[in-house]
Amino acid sequence: MKRFFALILAVLMIAALFCACGEKTKTDSGSGDNSTVSEAAEEVKTTVDAKYDKGFAEQYAKSVTTDDSGNKVYEFDGEAYKNYTHDYNNTISAEITNDVAENHDVSFGQYCYINEERQAVIIGVNPGKYDAASAEKEASSIAQSAFPYFQGLAEPVDTIKVLYTNANDQNEVYGEFEFAVE
Question: What is the pTM of this model?
């Protein structure tokens, strides 16, 4: 039964990702962060802390080097970067979906996915099924699973949220947990 629930969550997650896809324009702010985007050549460069690097980007990057601190530096062309983030998002989201499905019964929720714009992992819970105590216990683990994705972005983030929302209305937030990158 849990496998059936996990399969349904995975299908819904992928459908939600397709609905949320859209083209974004990025500019380099020159802020001195660890990433750059060159629009003219559509090249993307990102530096990933060794702690969060799982090597997923290697198959998409046109070059991979290691800096003096042991961090991986990936350089992508624009299309390869889009493919990398899309595929990595789906992979991590599926892992999170499976973890959530193992901890809850079939009626708990409908989807789990990473929302880059909201800098959050969204867990769509069926009305009346949210349990604050269990959400608080599992939210940290969910955030730890999502950190490698958020740290592998061209513009990595320092904090992410785990949001338990009404599966039918993501504006209705049942629980919100924020975690900082260590």
Answer: 0.75
